[in-house]
């Protein structure tokens, strides 16, 4: 293609008539106005007003050519208007058109050329520029072509114009527009009718002035610019004259392009917001014939310093593009808008100008940020926009899983492409200059500070930024963190803990702190430090906040949507069931149908949004980047808390120092919450990305803050660490113990601290603000963690050591374990009689619909509770079975053995005694109730402890639940149902015999001490005291009673003030009197027995002492 073949001014279909008489032509602008315009224009071009040859004219009615004064620029009077020789003309010149008052010589020339001029076209007949591009100069230029001929030919092809009426087309057949005014000037000057470098400014001015007003002038000039640039590029070893000619043509063309947008009055045009803008050209691809090419933008940027109108022109265009984009969604053709900003991102000066614009960061509300700031609309584009979600997931109630997955995959690809564009744009801003970088960081910080309400329990979506906008912000900040997040954590030391004391961008004043109240944190942060925060620190804390207010808030929304969907589905079902009842009542039917329609629309919108959020949140690459960032936060947080240079290759020492670092205590709570929530979400929803994204640091984090739990104030946050470890044990793919199970089983750090840490929190959750039922869920998860690692003998040995070295700690743990077993078994088994009765009642065919619905509701409630408690019961009994097998001695300590025996006896009686008939329900597996599993495990606990005399005595002494008949029935069931092998059944029978004999001995002892003085009675348990102690409240109880009480509640039972076992004082005098009374009773019982035996021997027929029950 010809390098000059691009676009030409329109040409008339037939030659134009000769110039009309002066009286019929339009009036030219007055001389004063044109002189002012000329001076402004020449100043833009680099010259002064005195450099022009004369004032310009816009129509044939203008005065005859005049020359400006060489110094003052004052026009020469019309009567003395000598023609300035071409060689003396300035390089940039605006030549006036011929005057209406022509001289005799002019008339003669017109008479000679009249017929020729009559065949020429007028400049006002310019057509739209064709799409052709002029060809480069031929490699073999005819030898006879002079430079003047070359200039005329090449300029005519570039600008599609001619001053020769006989030349209507260029060498490539493109129509050329005749310039009558310049042609007249040349004729008047008796100069060749050729375009030249000296008169090029006048030629461009004439062609541009007469270009149709309904068309953008910039369109014509831009096409000329592209042709001249391509012609320059096509030159091969040009002569200096030709190169200078084309460069001057390029310079003048570009200047007039800018003038056409910034000074339209120069071309006798009114200002037009439609025409005087770069927006339409920026929205086209740079390769498009009508698009703004890179050469043009590069030229514009290079002239920023010399022309102060260019930068505002480009800045305003991008502001307008941003404003238009703010009304669009991903359903619309948004890509050209993003590409326009990507084009800007190649030029740092453009980005610097954008960042300096007032709308880059205006004071806005949270939702206003994404619409009214310059970058906001670009980040707003997302599949999470409601209109987009409705398109991707139309008819969500009937979509099958495969269709949903396909739609989610499609939106992920679209969003990935858009986010990659945003990443490139922000990276360019960051690298443009320090000032621009700071502006971008300020903008991100403004987003975070304006969106604190996104983490409120309830908030109005109209008062915060949208989910799609915040997700995009989070992803881009994750991208910014990638360069410093290497696998060796070599740059983690660059993250400065003193960020919040050094003029931070992020506002955390109202955020809950890890372990400090408001007054403490305010005092700490009131002391400011000198210096600036480095870029890594800035981006780290911005990204941390973005996860909190952005992605994690969006993920949390899934639960809310699930509840809403369930609610609307329930109500729609009720309305549909009600519809047949009002089918004959038109008014009520219409109201019902309207309500049904509204509910259905809301339901489908919620379902579409839920599917859309899942699709966005489950994108694997996004989650992989997020996890990488969270690993860095984990390592950094452990370094701050421990005051060490911790990395996963180094070992932490626990517990952490008692003196907590103040900087750690005053950190926002979300520094830890984000880690936990992010990993929990990935474990549950996107497990495939976790395989290569988890290391020892996650286990170290959980164990550290469970062992040193005083470092974290929020009990729910601490319990989330247990949940995180538990979810890490879920079997995934080829990992039978999950992603964390093997690490917890085998790593040195876990072997040393894990068991004690989880047992410690098992105790702690009893005394914290966790809900009553939440503690059972936490303990259930703890059981699963212990079961996962129990295969390692090291943990068993550690448990034995703990029972010996830290007796009080272990006793408290076992006591709570028994409390849980007692409660959950009682609650779980206690629901089955009710469930059984409900099931029988519902089989009654005579039940009314209302009664049936009420029973069904009560049945569902009972079933839910039974299911939950039986799950907990199974795990609790299973854990006791494991522990008693390993260290039976620890479970038979005096403090706990009696309660343990009572719990076991009670539940054994429920399973095999007379009450077992009440446990029959339909489909017991539905409630996780399996007597064939539960009974053998309870029997195992008996057998594990059966060698202990203390345990045997405790079982036999349980007057509430122990029965020999229950023990024999248990043996019969174990043998008859093959729940135990014969060897174990025989061991059970031998143990039962021990219980029976011990019972006989205890009954005899009870008879000896059955009537004791009231002062010897324990006021709480009602038993004979053996070791009376005085409490801080001065009440006297038996030591065993207060020990068991303090295991569950470390407070004085009378005053509720905190106390420990060390606070009790033995009442020695009372204990001695009790022992003396016991000796007296034993002696009295012995004397009476001997007298009875003597009476029998002497035949006195005395009654035998009855020693049976």
UniProtKB/TrEMBL annotation:
Low complexity compositional bias, start-end: 54-75
Domain U-box per the UniProt entry, residue ranges: 1011-1084
Family annotation (InterPro entries): Ub_conjug_fac_E4_core (IPR019474), UBE4 (IPR045132), Ubox_domain (IPR003613), Znf_RING/FYVE/PHD (IPR013083)
Source domain of life: Eukaryota
Gene Ontology terms: biological process: ERAD pathway; protein polyubiquitination; ubiquitin-dependent protein catabolic process
UniProt feature, compositional bias: Basic and acidic residues: 28-37
Molecular function terms, GO-annotated: peptidyl-prolyl cis-trans isomerase activity; ubiquitin-ubiquitin ligase activity
Catalytic activity reported: S-ubiquitinyl-[E2 ubiquitin-conjugating enzyme]-L-cysteine + [acceptor protein]-L-lysine = [E2 ubiquitin-conjugating enzyme]-L-cysteine + N(6)-ubiquitinyl-[acceptor protein]-L-lysine
Pathway assigned in UniProt: Protein modification; protein ubiquitination
Compartments it resides in: Cytoplasm; Nucleus
Family per record: Belongs to the ubiquitin conjugation factor E4 family.
Entry protein name: Ubiquitin conjugation factor E4
